[in-house]
Amino acid sequence: MQAALDVADKGFKVVLLDKSPSIGGSMVKLDKTFPTNDCSICTAAPKMVEVGRHPNIDLLTYAEIAQVEGDVGSFRVTVWKRTGYVDPAKCTGCGDCVDCCPVEVPNEFDAYLSQRKAIFLQFPQAVPSVYTIDIDCCVGCGACARNCEAEAINFLDHSQEVEYEVSSLIVATGFTVLEPTEMLYGYGEYPDVITALQYERLLSASGPTQGEIVRPSDGKKPKRVAWIQCVGSRSPKYDRLYCSRVCCMYATKEAMITRDHHPDIDTTVFYLDMRAYGKGFEEYYNLAEDMGVEYIRSRPVEAFKKENGNIVVVYENTYTGEVEEREFDLLVLSTALIPSQVRKLSEILGIDLDENGFIKEKDVVFAPFETSREGIYVAGCSQGPKDIPDSVAQACAAACKALIDVRNKEPEKEKHTVQEKEPGDNPRVGVVVCHCGKNIAGFLDVEEVTEYAKTLSNVVYAEHEAFACSEDAQVRIKEAVEKNEVNRLVVAACSPRTHAFLFQQTLADVGLNKYLFEMANIRNHCSWVHSSDRERATEKAKDLVRSAVKKVGLQEPLHEMEIGVSKRALVIGGGISGMSAALNLARLGMYVYLVEKEKTLGGNLTNVHVLFPSDIPAKNVLQPLLKKVKEESNIKVFLNTTLKDISGYIGNYEAVLTMKGKDKKIEFGTIVVATGFSEVEPYGKYGYGEHKNILTELELEKKLKDKKVPNYKTAVFIGCALSRCEERPFCCRIGCGNAVKNAKLLKEKNPDAHIFVLYRDVRTFGKKEEEYYEDVQRKGVKFLRFTEDKEPEVAVKDGKITITVFDQFLQENIELPADLVVLNAPLEGDDTAEDLKKLLKIPLGEGRYFMEAHAKIRPLDFPTDGVYLCGAAHSPKGIADSVSQAVGAASRAAVPMMKGWVTIEPITSFVDADLCSGCGICIQVCPYSAVEKGADGKSHVIEALCKGCGACGATCPQGAITMKGYTDAQLETMVDTLLEVSS
């Protein structure tokens, strides 16, 4: 979906294929997403509807590619479009066909924990919202057709071939989960042994138990739930050496949510290494421990069923070396992520697969989104297991590459708008109250709130929807607006931050001004915070709806301002991320200013010897990249240069660059921040600074590169030096991989040497990384685990280094005399981050890493329009992930530039010049520099810069500033209404 939107938003046509009846993939099956615990379907549904209604996307579901001919720039694709025997133009989504269907079959969407009918809607928020007949299960009774008032069912319909001419292809077929029937844990034999995906469906409000955690065998609530990690992955026995990358965190999430819903349920996670490598992951893991989730580092051997029906897990406790047993009511298996039926597709496309059946990339480090065939790209878990933000970044990168292949780069100029109606003088308010499955309806009375809304003044329509954000609900809302002559709409549901734009667009589609709208957040403000008091949550929901109805009655139409966007970009940072972003923007036809504070391009990569896990010399990647940047006519490089000042807004920025004491002004439309990371010198930890042979990883890299490594008979690597601690709770993400790589290099350089790696968890999670780790162990590098409470001790005496570490197998301290000690020092954002935060008005988080707009679905965007993010400026990451983000950020930045225009939200401040005294307080408090003093001495608002935060209006002593959409009258009415005693 993200790849399609990235291309379509630039004004180009996209054909989006999905073999399922609905788009959405695996994300829509999840309950929540880590590490924010956002509702998964609430996050995905608006994006699905956006895809479904996008004028540049031709959505083709229940379809597969049959043949591909031609070459890059001119592919001819034949698609086999299967019929679902239901006409999407006639189907109203009423569901009468399901009620009368006599056939029940296992429901794939619920991971076979429930039944569905032979005619079905995959899930309530499905896009397109059209029922499908599974002809393989249908008995042909015709009951559905006889009961369909819309006459949408036609058994004489047939599948057909459709041909398309396209410039390029993107493969994003996702993953499936291993069915672990071959394991010794009883899956398929014991009903209370289930997969993690099945547990997700149990947790989900739209799942088979509506979010209730019960045992499949007897429907009873379990008292003890266990998770076993790495089931079928990291396993030479089952020929799957790779790490599935997300299992540690989704098991943590599931255990945490279980504890949150039911604090009396004991939760235990059996794990090998806790791979909490991503942004916010380590902190999330720590929070789970604080909530009472138990973690046992172990090697589970088997599971068996007792006579009482409980499951016993037999495992080796790797802390003690003892074989132990634990009894549980429910056992959850975190099974391997495996390719989703791509073998046949790869043959049709003529692209290679790797040894695990995933699509083989052109290069695992610097071209992870390119396949073996020019013009065909890969994104997401098709290339290998990965988390949602990494998949989104790679999808944006693939979209960028695919668009470069388009021969005619003239986008569609037509703007699809509906003539706006006059709202009239008298408010006619419609109210829609959302169940959100059980997320809302499970904790307050939605029907009662709806009936109450009908009694409110000016309300002419009120109804409740199971899922108000679903595509079919949007259709019903449009029909209700037109039928009841509604001119203002209130939706009582979840957060306006994620859903307001969806309902606003629905209003616009029927000709109403999109700002004649208000949301009452009864999920966050009622069902979540008052989950234990249904009656009071219901009453509060009524209050919020009443307040929203009053406010929207005073709302006036607002209109967005359209501004042009310059086709020039500023990229800040000249490392591999910055250079990759600049090159791809240039290839899309944009002119790029590439600014680097150092005297050369290359960033931290200039100090790296070889790359992990490919063992390719870093110079073999860096030198060709430098050459391409130098030869690219659309890139202007500024070295020894920093950003001194900036003004303007998306599309129309003006900056002052400082280089060698001289200033230069430049103008551009968008910004990409790629400032990278810096290594912290860990003075005071493990003897750093006390001996010349106690080095950081980056210092060792330089010595390896320059061939100046000190002589050694014993070398010791120590992980997590000053990271994963109270001061820096986050993981450095790349430290384990670098330690494994450099330990191998030292072992190969001196085969007789003793090489030790002391670690807390080995986090080799990326593609080819676990295999690399296994190979290094076979080469004789010794790995010793330590815990946070028993860290190694480093002593320097008489010029000699001795390390004392607790050996978990021997259960005693051992001493390692070392000639060379290498520390995995923590990584932090570049030291320019604080200045950029102030200049660009962008948020900065822990460790001087910038904060993205949304952790899952907008990892490359800032909340500030026109500014984008990539590489280690976002968080620590390796080359492959940095390049994916960089090319993805180029794609995101190119969206407004290739369109040539953007619209600015009209919820901005307005200064009444007659009341303004010219005191300038508003200018001082505005965090976006959106207020200036005019020639008349009065304050004036630059609407394109204003974000509607309200700081100016709140501080104006004259009351001269009004917030459009949040006027004093509206806010006072809301407060007065909330203070009323509801009857």
Mean pLDDT rating: 95
Distance between the termini: 46 Å
Cα-based radius of gyration, to the nearest Å: 29 Å
- Spatial shape: globular
Sheet with the most strands? Answer: 7 strands, mixed
Number of beta strands: 50
| Fraction of residues in helix | 25-40%
Count up the helices: 25
Provide the low-confidence segments as ranges.
Answer: none
Strand content: 25-35%
Largest sheet: spatial strand order: 14-20-15-16-17-18-19
Structural class by sheet pairing and helices: alpha/beta
Give a written overview of the molecule.
By secondary structure, this protein is of the alpha/beta class. The chain contains 25 helices and 50 strands. It has a seven-stranded mixed β-sheet with strand order 14-20-15-16-17-18-19. Strands 30-29-28-34-45 form a five-stranded parallel β-sheet. Helix 11 packs parallel to helix 15. The longest helix is centred in the C-terminal third of the chain and has 21 residues, at 879-899. The protein is globular. The mean pLDDT is 95.
Please give the structural blueprint.
Layout: H1 2-8, E1 14-18, E2 32-33, E3 38-39, H2 40-53, E4 57-61, E5 63-71, E6 74-81, H3 96-100, E7 104-106, E8 115-117, E9 119-120, E10 132-133, H4 143-147, E11 160-166, E12 169-171, E13 175-177, E14 193-195, H5 196-203, E15 224-231, H6 247-261, E16 266-271, H7 281-290, E17 294-305, E18 311-317, E19 322-328, E20 330-335, E21 337-339, H8 343-349, E22 376-378, H9 388-404, E23 429-434, H10 438-441, H11 446-454, E24 459-465, H12 471-483, E25 488-493, H13 496-509, E26 517-521, H14 523-528, H15 534-553, E27 561-564, E28 568-572, H16 576-587, E29 591-595, H17 618-631, E30 635-638, E31 641-649, E32 652-659, E33 662-668, E34 670-673, E35 677-679, E36 694-696, H18 697-706, E37 714-718, H19 735-749, E38 754-759, H20 769-778, E39 782-785, E40 793-797, E41 800-807, E42 812-818, E43 820-823, E44 827-829, H21 833-840, E45 867-869, H22 879-899, E46 901-904, E47 909-911, H23 921-925, E48 931-933, E49 939-941, H24 951-955, E50 961-963, H25 968-979
Parallel strand pairs: 1-4, 12-22, 14-20, 15-16, 15-20, 16-17, 23-24, 23-25, 25-26, 28-29, 28-34, 29-30, 34-45, 36-43, 37-38, 37-43, 38-39
Antiparallel strand pairs: 2-3, 5-6, 6-11, 7-8, 9-10, 13-21, 17-18, 18-19, 27-46, 31-32, 32-33, 35-44, 40-41, 41-42, 47-50, 48-49
Helix pairs in contact: 1-9, 2-13, 5-6, 6-7, 9-22, 11-15, 12-13, 15-25, 16-17, 16-22, 19-20
